[in-house]
């Protein structure tokens, strides 16, 4: 069995286990393979292995990979997006995970030809190094997106702090779910907010146990370009 297939099976097994532990259905969780640090060739292998949702954090790199891989992939933009780059990618992607300010929303409204599925990035851990709006700003931010008919708020996204402490991670993910549930309960047309994008290579099991519906897995899935692959 190839190295990649083995990695995918291991991740799949962990996700199934996490779903069982939390009485969730496996079908509630989507895997986004984060290919930002590997080549187009390897991203294509990931797709061929059956993971068809790919995540990139730089506009240029996404466009290069997209042109080479083209069909059958859903593209997720997971990085901090500069206003001037919005026009380059907004009509090329399926999901934007990093909506966190009005200037980006305005630019999307101006440039998007169709409605764009967006996650609002929230900084629940309060680390100043992380992008995202604060939990306190969330309600107002969601409200102010109401008139932007090119933006559909499908969910919330976060990056957990880089710590080992499981308790800290769980608290962050639980807080995110609480925030998501609160918006979802309002049943807003422009912000159904049913999804939770959280969990990376080191913490996706905990994130799934706490309610993640999209996990964004890089190194644990695609490896690093410097490693051999098969
Ligand atoms: C790089 C990145 C990931 C994946 O990180 P890994 O630790 O390699 O799994 C997920 N989300 C975002 C926003 C990233 O930038």
TrEMBL record:
The keyword GTP-binding does not apply. Residues 9-224 form the Alanine racemase N-terminal domain. Gene3D superfamilies: Alanine racemase. Keywords: Pyridoxal phosphate. Pfam families: Ala_racemase_N (PF01168). The modification N6-(pyridoxal phosphate)lysine is found at residue 36. InterPro entries: Ala_racemase_N, PLP-binding_barrel, PyrdxlP_homeostasis. It comes from the Bacteria. Pyridoxal 5'-phosphate (PLP)-binding protein, which is involved in PLP homeostasis. Belongs to the pyridoxal phosphate-binding protein YggS/PROSC family. This is Pyridoxal phosphate homeostasis protein. It comes from Sporosarcina siberiensis.
């Amino acid at each position: 069995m190839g190295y990649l297939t083995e990695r995918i099976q291991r991740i799949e097994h962990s996700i199934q286990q996490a779903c069982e532990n939390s009485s969730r259905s496996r079908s509630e969780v989507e895997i986004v393979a984060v290919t930002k640090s590997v080549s187009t060739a390897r991203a294509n292998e990931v797709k061929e292995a059956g993971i068809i949702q790919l995540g990139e954090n730089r506009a240029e790199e996404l466009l290069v990979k997209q042109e080479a891989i083209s069909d059958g992939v859903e593209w997720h933009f997971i990085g901090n997006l500069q206003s001037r780059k919005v026009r380059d990618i907004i009509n090329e992607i399926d999901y934007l995970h990093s909506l966190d300010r009005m200037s980006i929303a305005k630019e999307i409204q101006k440039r998007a030809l169709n409605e764009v599925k967006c996650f609002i990035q929230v900084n629940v851990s309060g680390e100043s190094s992380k992008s995202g709006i604060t939990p306190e700003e969330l309600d107002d931010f969601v409200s102010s997106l109401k008139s932007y008919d090119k933006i559909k708020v499908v969910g919330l996204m976060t990056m957990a702090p880089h710590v080992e402490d499981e308790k800290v991670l769980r608290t962050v993910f639980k807080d995110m779910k609480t925030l998501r549930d609160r918006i979802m309960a309002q049943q807003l047309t422009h912000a159904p907010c049913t999804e939770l994008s959280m969990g990376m290579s080191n913490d996706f099991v905990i994130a799934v146990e706490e309610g993640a519906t999209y996990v964004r897995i890089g190194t644990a899935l695609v490896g690093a370009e410097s490693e051999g692959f098969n």
